[in-house]
Amino acid sequence: MTIRVLLADDQTLIRAGFKVILDNQPGIEVVGEASTGAEAVDLARSTRADIVLMDIRMPEMDGVEATRRIVADDDTAGVRILVLTTFENSDNVVRSLRAGASGFLGKNVEPADLVRAVQTVAAGESLLSPHATSALIGQFLSRPELEPLPASELAELDALTDREHEVIVLVAHGLSNEEIAERLYLSPLTARTHVYRAMTKLGVRDRAQLVVLAYQRGLVHPRERLA
Length: 227
Hints:
By secondary structure, the chain is α/β, with parallel strands linked by helices. The chain is about 50% helix and about 10% strand.
């Protein structure tokens, strides 16, 4: 099955470079290019893209708002978004994750890592680099100037089992399913199942949103280290 990718960036050269890399990869097709956030929203719907590589800084509508609109629209709710960033403004990366993005990539990403990221997200995973992503979220979600999520958007934790709660904390610290399995003396499949059930109960779409929720609800703290 071909992975359909939409490129959203106001820099023509960035889009051209990513298009060459992805179109030369079997099983991946670039189905559209957008230079503004508004175009990205429209094209996500009309091209029936599976994944959007979304720049943050774009004219008319930025990538954060475009992400929010794509995720909120029933017609495009299944589209997964990878945020492109130079890491100059990490607050916006966190806001994008809150809006529903599945992870982020630096614009200087290596070609092989770009392809792997697209394939990973298309397979239903979220974070290309769990350690880096969780560290960034931990650093910035706790800052007071970041507007907290409204209570109505925060899922209840009461339905979680003790094991699922434990797994969420480990995910938020950046551990992969294999590392969680090793730490808890489980099989990787069992660890993956616990992660999936926790996401289902909490109503989050992927691991990125699970990490955001864990920090937002105080299950983990930025400077907290695993024992």
